Amino acid sequence: MNIAATPSTLREIADMPAPKGLPLFGNLFEIDLNHFHQVLERWADQLGPVYSFAIGPRRMVALADPEAMKRMFRERPDTFRRTRRLADALAEMRFTGVFSAEGETWRRQRKLVAMALNTAHLKSFYPSMRTTTERLLARWQRAARDGADVDLCADLMRYTVDVTTQLAFGIDFNTLETEGPVIQQKLDKVFPVLNSRINAVFPYWRHFRLPRDRQLDAALADIQVRVNAIIADVRARMAADPALYEAPTNFLEAIIAAKEAEGIEFSDDDIYGNVCTLLLAGEDTTANTIAWAVNFFIEQPALFARARAEADAVLGDSPVATDVDKAGDLPFIEAFYNETMRLKPVAPINAMEPLEDVELMGYRIPRGTVIMMLTRHMATDEARFGHAKTFDPDRWLREAPVAGCPHDTSAYVPFGTGPRFCPGRNLALLEIRTVLSMLCRNFDVRLAPGTPPVEEHLAFTMMPRNLTVRLTARTN
User: Tens digits of per-residue pLDDT, 229-251?
Assistant: First the structure.
């Protein structure tokens, strides 16, 4: 709601409850960026669904009210936007894709990116994904045979990089069987620095460079050279084979073809930014979701047995789903990963800011104020999900909520909601189903001996730390 339409009795941010802080520093010393989401969730439990906090001189608002958050998602991109800090940080890295774009730029890019990731393209792409999944199977079979510990997140990152680069470029990097190209190693440096920059007290890197900033600069320069060379190669390939404009075989071809077919302005920088965005988003988010699901398999052996029985029935004699239809016919595994993403979303918080002064929960929120939306807190609210802290995949399979046990799916937003709904959702879910069914069909899994407790670690996305596992060939 525009502030002009609200009564003059609105309270100000200074009137909000807030954790005690220090002069000049605010709550800076209470915040560990690696566990930022947990700090904000704890304060929400103590202070209520809306409060303010300060990092140095920057005062921000934290929001844990489901209705207010849903309104913010719904009113993007006209009333709310991603924070300018995030957009600026990504622009400095030249990652100006659909994720960070706003307004008309977003509308222009979103249409083409959605076309490139539509269901028809994914269906024709699945044979390549199956080959990559078979390589992951073989990698894990070797580890099982050798009794080797598996860094699960690292292996899943290799898998998602291979899938994403094949979809993005039509190039088989094959990091599962080789050390892979330098570009993947360079991309690994982006998210940790991005997380620290968007939450920094001041943008020091614009005045002087720390060693990690210089390392990032070198990585970004290398990424730019390599990605631009790939784009040039794809354009040359399409020029030599005009049929690719009618039947593109990968994301980059589809964007270039859609640009020509639709006549939409889409610059080389737009193409570069969206390719890099897909690589970043496709690597971390999907890999971490699969890893969290495997962690729940380990913690819930009875549920793992149910998932295995379903995978056996659907996959039959094949160790990997043979086609998209089989990968999609896994209702319990689907319920399992939905429950995983409810409790362990890779984006437990989501930062936005209003484009104008707005009213929010009885407070006047000035234009440009950073609002931290606690989306995981919303999905673990007892008023939205019964026994909200309990891992229960069956809640997703019931035809109707049990009395006294609500099931409000509108409070579950792992891919966002509203106009800015993630266009890569279908790809991510296809990868998740394919890998989880393959794991259930072929392996027993447990934590490696001596592994410390698994912890949440926030580095822009939330990942499991210490998830080292021991795989063995299934025994039943």
Answer: 888 888 899 999 999 988 887 77
- Please tell me whether residue 63 adopts helix, strand or coil conformation: strand
d(CA 188, CA 221): 14
pTM above 0.85, yes or no: yes
For residue 16, give Cα distances in angstroms to 11, 362, 372. Answer: 8, 10, 14
User: Torsions phi, psi of 472, nearest 5?
Assistant: -135, 150
The residue-averaged pLDDT of 376-388 equals 93
Rounded CA gap, 389 and 292, in Å? 15
Please count the other Cβ atoms lying within 10 Å of the Cβ belonging to residue 292. 25
pLDDT digits (tens, 9 = 90+) for 13-53: 999 999 999 998 999 999 998 999 999 999 999 999 999 99
Question: Are the beta carbons of 126 and 163 closer than 8 angstroms?
Answer: no
Classify burial at 194, counting beta carbons within 10 Å of its beta carbon; exposed 0-12, middle 13-18, buried 19 or more.
buried
pLDDT number for residue 231: 85
Q: How far apart are CA 109 and CA 371, in angstroms?
A: 25
3-state secondary structure at position 443? strand
Which phi and psi angles does 257 have, rounded to 5°?
-65, -45
Retrieve residue 221's tokens: 């320069």
Strand residues in 65-147 grouped as ranges (E):
80-82
Q: Is residue 3 scored above 60 in pLDDT?
A: no
Give the 3-state DSSP-derived string for 170-224, with helices as H, strands as E and coil as C: CCCCCCCCCCCCHHHHHHCCHHHHHHHHHCCCCCHHHCCCCHHHHHHHHHHHHHH
**H helix count then E strand count, the chain:** 17, 12
